[in-house]
Amino acid sequence: MRKYQLYLVEDEFAAHYFGRERIFFQLFHEHHTADGELKFITQKQISYITKRVEVLKIHNLLQKQLGKMKGFRADHGAYTITLSGKLSTARLEVFQELITVEAEGSYEAETAFFEVLRKCESSFLAIDLEHERVGWLKPIKERKYV
Hints:
Strands 1, 2, 3, 4, 5, 6, 7 and 8 form an eight-stranded antiparallel beta sheet that branches. The relative contact order is 0.23. The chain has helices spanning about 10-15, 20-35, 35-50, 55-65, 110-120, and strands at about 1-10, 50, 70-75, 80-85, 90-95, 100-105, 125-130, 135. The protein has five helices and eight strands.
């Protein structure tokens, strides 16, 4: 099973650390494994570099974009997509600090969620702590100055 935590990163940090996403991964990994004062410090750092998720906006967008999709189900604020007769399944939950996605099988179901989120905000960072993967849902274009 793949488990993602999606954070909405402040635009200035997203632009500054583009291409160096491993630094974000290290912070979130350290927070996940820390306890005591270090946990408190890393939480403060995470709160500083991330924005709150507009929960209502995300709920409305998911319902609007995926509501008619076969295999889509909403249940008490959590959303599930099951495609191709259970060959691809994903579950998404929205919180103020982050969005969680759990997926199994092929990547189609989680990709459907990611596509909707990608269009709504440009600085969603997906982190898979277990498999040590990190990436932007919508890669930031580097500014070219002439």
